[in-house]
Amino acid sequence: MQLSALFGRSAKVSAQARRAGWSYEEAFARNIGLVTGEEQALLREACVAIAGMGGVGGIHAVTFARAGVGRFRIADPDTFEVANFNRQYGATTEFLGRNKADAMASVIREINPEAEIRVFSEGVSKENIAEFLEGADLFVDGVDFFAVGLRRWLFRVCHERGIWAITAGPVGFGVAWLVFSPHGMSAEEYFDFSSCGTYLEALIAFALGLAPRGLHLAYFDRDAVDVEQDRAPSFGGACQLCAGVAAIEGVKILVGRGRVWPAPYYQQFDGWTSRYVRGRLRFGNRGPLQRLKRAWALRQALQRYPHLRGLNRPF
Fold this sequence. Notes:
The chain has helices at residues 3-7, 15-19, 24-27, 37-45, 57-66, 100-111, 129-133, 148-161, 187-191, 199-210, 236-255, 288-304, and strands at 47-51, 71-75, 116-120, 138-141, 164-171, 174-180, 265-270, 275-280. The chain is of the alpha/beta class. It has a single domain, classed as NAD(P)-binding Rossmann-like Domain (Rossmann fold, 3-Layer(aba) Sandwich). It has an 8-stranded mixed β-sheet, sandwiched between helices. β2, α6 and β3 (116-120) form a beta-alpha-beta unit. It is globular. The termini are far apart. The relative contact order is 0.13.
């Protein structure tokens, strides 16, 4: 059987790409053997929505594109700057000052000229959320760690609309990740955001829910975190680990094969300590141990940085 028959539809691509010998069938043929031809056809038709094209979001987009995903919704209102160069895929001299979503759309098209991409260079808002998620089979979280309010809202809307969602964060020299099934525990319930009275409490709830075992804490310098400036250490290799696990989890969801461990399960791998853990928080952050951790972390943060008591942001 020819590859074109295995992979489904035949789409139009640019004459330049054809002259260069590009074809979907050849571009993604090396996926076969890990996925079947029929599954690759599903990926070709799949739609992945990614909010944020920075540290993790940009490389999420590239990794899903190299998996052969054929349709994207990507959003980011920011532009690339020099401070992004240590970790963000699109942070190059070519794209300096360019909108991140526009730039990463160009990168995706260089990988797959037939990809259908909707670009939201203004970011995601209440005004365009329906359009952003229209037809999406999967949502992948690429928003900034400190944007807990936007993340909370996006996960809530995805759960309401029956869309699978993945978050994978670069934690130290590793990755921590969660998968939210539209039929299982929601992110709102898992992180227990409703019990948070302040932005700082919500940020701590997200951090401790993402990586409950804290494999990175033995070497992580907490003083390098600046909540007021939305700044924390982030390593490029860890961002690549995020894209790897998110794409593999995403492919399992999109083709309907393989075991997925949705919340209240969590997973973390730390490359520095060479440790991996998968655990289950039966009650999410509402469990007694997680409540104690959250209270301790809040007390430590306010003792070290008492001025954060006045930090008031929507979440």
